[in-house]
Write a structure and sequence with these properties.
The structure is a homodimer. By secondary structure, chain A is mainly beta. The first copy, chain A, is built from two helices and twelve strands, in the order E-E-E-E-E-E-E-E-E-E-E-E-H-H. At the A-B interface, strand 1, strand 7, strand 8, strand 9 and strand 10 of A face strand 1, strand 7, strand 8, strand 9 and strand 10 of B.
């Protein structure tokens, strides 16, 4: 069967003037057309290291936001908790995550559930980035950072004490 | 630095008895531990061909559901529309999609927005599956199938007429 539709641009071949396109192309290295790459929460001084954020979907009709975070090799996300949950899929690379008191190795396409009010932190391996899709409710509370008492409590487990990064 | 955490199981190394694990491992071929692979909507007779569905995240705390659909080579999803929106990322393979009146080539990691009340259908290429992540609101209306009049209207564009599949 001959297929008349051979165009690889994001525009539909049957309406080249169509704007905006419902398709946004993937670019090399987990970037996307029309999606801005932001430094993760630069405004609030939370301790993180080498993390970028891209908001993939944020629509009034959708009750969640779909983001992509990437932690550079040896970097880490903020250790935090909040009332809202996270649904995560690793998209690129590998690393480890803390969820509650457990530390887990994670690799591409693994799924991670972060329940409400659960401490969590993602760390990339020393030789690999760690990129992950992260789904959250559109209406949600702000993350909370650990107090000194929280850190003391978490650190009673020596593996957790070695894992967590609370300074930038 | 020696890393004491070397276990590749989903259990945290610092608490091997932890259940259930917040991490569900990716398995070969876009399957996941603990996620059932379902035939797409077998109950309602909607016309589709060779589509499987896996629900990756469905939690009371999350206002959306995160699913993975896979269309086998040469297969297609149902041509439908509804009031809720879809946020889609291609995870595996390639194919084409109809969104409204436009037909688009899609490949891995491309993003597709399906606005409310917009006809849409995904088709895998003849020599490749087409697997995609699809986000929807938890509370949503049921998809509606095209009437004969809808099909006649859509088919005024000859590319769309050639593209759509309305029988199983």
């Amino acid at each position: 069967m001959n297929d008349p539709i051979d165009d690889i641009s994001a525009r539909p071949v049957n309406d080249p003037a169509f704007e905006p396109s419902p398709v946004r192309r993937a670019l090399p290295g987990c970037r996307w057309e029309g999606v801005e790459t932001l430094r993760y929460k630069p405004e609030d001084g939370a301790p993180f290291r080498d993390v970028t954020r891209q908001v993939l979907f944020q629509m009034p009709e959708l009750h969640c936001e779909w983001r992509y975070f990437e932690v550079a090799p040896n970097g880490h996300s903020t250790l935090e908790r909040h009332m809202h949950a996270h649904a995560v899929m690793i998209l690129r690379g590998r690393g480890r995550c803390l969820v509650g008191q457990g530390i887990h190795r994670v690799r591409e396409q693994d799924l991670v559930t972060v329940p409400p009010e659960t401490w969590h932190q993602f760390r990339a391996d020393e030789d690999s980035p760690l990129g992950f899709l992260c789904l959250v409710n559109r209406d949600r509370d702000r993350p909370r950072l650990p107090t000194a008492q929280d850190i003391e409590h978490l650190s009673r487990d020596r593996h957790v004490a070695e894992f967590i990064r609370t300074g930038s």
